[in-house]
TrEMBL record, chains A, B:
Species, as recorded: Fodinicola feengrottensis
Gene3D superfamilies named among the record's database cross-references: Tetracycline Repressor, domain 2
Residues in HTH tetR-type domain copies: 17-77
Segments of the chain annotated as binding DNA: 40-59
Keyword Acetylation listed: no
Keywords from the named record: DNA-binding, Transcription, Transcription regulation
Name of the protein in its database record: TetR/AcrR family transcriptional regulator
Taxonomy of the source species: Bacteria, Bacillati, Actinomycetota, Actinomycetes, Mycobacteriales
Amino acid sequence: MDRVRNVTGKTKRLPRYVREQQMLDAAVQMFARRGYHAASMDEVAELAGVSKPMVYLYLGSKEELFLACIRREAGRLLDAFAGQVNQADAPDQQLWHALRAFFVLVAENRDSWRVLHQQAPAHGEPFAGEVAAMRTAIIAFAADLIDQNIRSRGVSEATEHDVSALAHALVGAGESLADWATEHPDEDPATTARRLMNFAWMGLDNLLHGSIWRP
Amino acid sequence: MDRVRNVTGKTKRLPRYVREQQMLDAAVQMFARRGYHAASMDEVAELAGVSKPMVYLYLGSKEELFLACIRREAGRLLDAFAGQVNQADAPDQQLWHALRAFFVLVAENRDSWRVLHQQAPAHGEPFAGEVAAMRTAIIAFAADLIDQNIRSRGVSEATEHDVSALAHALVGAGESLADWATEHPDEDPATTARRLMNFAWMGLDNLLHGSIWRP
DNA sequence: GTCCCTTCTTACTTACCAGTAAGATTACTG
DNA sequence: CAGTAATCTTACTGGTAAGTAAGAAGGGAC
């Protein structure tokens, strides 16, 4: 990221908020590509077009910088979910819209996804906890959809525990497909979402009709 | 890990192979609990009941030590799969046996699982590549089972691409459930395996009978 | 008992990088 | 056009942990 220069060749000054976002952009990229430890503050600063003390002035420390990245990207992901979900829709429609939004977001922000999914959980507290909280919210959303579906059919002897396990499996399948999708950039995110709907929802459908797999 | 002492109070010497395994045990534990970077070679050595230069003498460097951990644990995981699979069984039985072995292994070796699933992929090459290779083998196994099932029913227009996506989703669901299971140590691994069989196989069953989810 | 190979330790060097002190420069404000 | 409140830099310090040099000591072979 070359630094903007004015006519006299001197470096242009930018307001704090703009610089902070540039720093976060640079940090997300570095953390995603090199990993938390291998990414040096000097490199982040250089990529942001700024000197190192500026990063410390605005973001505090390497830990706080990483946390700020995680919070920003986690917020975006949750917003993408929330923005697509309409409580009035049927459960499968809610899941469909949420998944589509998710795969679109991941396709457009691979580095963010790597930071959230691969880097943050591996580097202990407080990073892992922050991502775990986000993931818990997503799993709760999935569990709620499954639960709605169960109740609407009156089928079930499923406990909260059972539903939680299913939600974890569903979210894990989504995460894995997100990784798979980054290796197939040609695929439309909506197609990926359809794949997961079929894999997961059809399985649930079978389950909820009392069709159980036995050893 | 206190060092073994003989009657005179002097430290007991052990043959190289035994020490190496102790070092790897200690390293897996440290890497899993503290993370790759936060785990220091001094701590690993102390936990193994040995001084740091011994670790360097036998295992080479921190990178090689981590790689050795990954290779050993990945090998065990693949062996656990291979040992349970009988080609003569029906596809669902093969998957069932493999999943049960997998969840048993994870329940008994949480640290190994954390190293393979959480630490190794986050710290770049050559670690990520080593785990990716193992994961590719597992996904190929899953894809093969799905494919067998498809062919045996003669149902399908599924491409290799489609099958690969399903296999990725299935494996991701398994990984996520493995994490979930470590938070529920009371649950029998076989029960966890049954959960996944129901979630995944019932979904596939529906798919293969031509029952497709549509937006 | 004594030779000698393997196991094992203490005590050090060195490189890297997070974090900072001190001050220069720009541009807004009255 | 001063005064001043931001933005921004160069040049440094210090702590931490990877990696190593040099040699001590157990224990099997004969």
